[in-house]
Amino acid sequence: MFFVTIFTETFLYLCLAFLAGSFLIRLLPATSHIRVNISSNLQLAAVWGIALFAFVPLIQLITHIAGRSTLGSAFEDVLLSFRIGNAWLFLFIICILFSVYIAYIKNTDSKQAAWVGMVFTGFAAFGVGWASHAGSFEGFLGVFTHGVHMLAVSAWIGTLLMASWFVPKSMDWQRFVTSYHPFALICFVIVVLSGILLAQFTVDFRQYDEALLVSYGQSLFLKQLFIIPLVIYAIFNGIWMKRRLQADASLQARPWIRVEFFIILFILLLTGIMNEQSPPLYMESLIEHSGYAPILNMFYDGTMDGAAISLALDGSVFFFIALALACIAGSIYIFKAKKHPALSWLTSLLFVVMGYFAFIQSIVIN
C-alpha cells in the first residue's frame, strides 16, 4: 500500500500540473495566440484523477477503523472527524464544481475560461495543502504555504508539460523561451521560498543532520540533490537556449524542455515519499518506532547506533565528489556540443547517485 500511495501522490501532482498548464497555455504571451488542442475530456479526467488519487491515503485509515466498526461508519468518521478526511471532502466538492464548469463551457480556449479554470485549480491546490504535514502542524499558515507551493509547482510543471507534448512543433520557440523564462523564474523563487518555510514546519534545521537518519530526511536530501541539475537545466532552457535560438530559429527546444520536466518528475516522486513518512520532530522516539531509513541499511557500512551524525572526510568522499562534479560538467558539455538530451538526463541522474554516495561515505552515526 505504501508504494501505491507514493505513485498516486505523484499522479495527483501531475493532474494538478496538467490542469494548470492547460489553462496557463492560453494566458502566456508566447502561446496565447497559438491554438493548442486540449480535449475537455482530458481536463475532466485530470479533475477526477485529483479526487481519486487524493482518496487513496484515506483507504488505509478507513480500513483500520472499519476493523472496530462497520465500513460505512468508518467512512463517515474519517470524512467528518479527521483533517485528511475534511480536506478530501473539500477537494471532492471542488472537483464536482470544476467538472460541471468544464462540461458546461465545453471550450476552454478563451482567456476568461482559462482564468476561471486557474481559480478552480488554485482551490484544488489548497485542498491538497489542507491534508499536508504543514497543514496538520501549523493550521492555516501551513495550508496556505503548502497551497501556494503546490500552485507554483503546478504552474511551472504544467507549462513545461504543455510545451513538451501539446503545443505544435511549428511554434515560435524563441518567443516562447524568451517570455517563459521570467515566468518560470518567478515560479522557481516562490517554490524555493515556500519550500524552505514548509521544511521549517517539519524539520528543525538545527537538527538537520539527525533528520538524515530517517526516511523523511533522506528523501529531503535526495530532493535537494535533484534541485542542482534542475537549476542547471533552467539555465540551459532559459538563457543558453535563447542564444542558440537567436542563431538558429528552426532549432527545436522541445527535447531539452522534456529533460527539465523529467527531472522535476523525480522531485515529485520524492515529495510523494515524504508525504507518507513521519516528519523527524522527535528523533529518538521515531528511530525507536520506525528504525533508520532503509536506504541507509543498503549503503551505509558502519555501525548504526545512536541519533547523531558526524562527518569523516577521506579519499573516497572526495572521489565521489569529483565524479559528481564530472557528471555536471558532462551535462554542460552535452548541451554545448549539441548531443542528444537523453545523455544529459542520464548524467544528471548519475550526479545525484554520486552525490549521495559522497554523503554516505562521509558520515558516521554515533
Automatic annotation (TrEMBL):
Membrane topology per record: Multi-pass membrane protein
Transmembrane segments: 6-25, 45-67, 87-105, 112-131, 143-167, 179-201, 221-240, 256-274, 307-335, 342-365
Cell location: Cell membrane
Keywords, in A-Z order: Cell membrane, Membrane, Transmembrane, Transmembrane helix
GO CC entries: plasma membrane
InterPro entries in the record: CopC/D, Cu-R_CopD_dom
Domain Copper resistance protein D: residue ranges: 175-273
GO BP annotation list: copper ion transport
Protein name: Copper resistance protein D
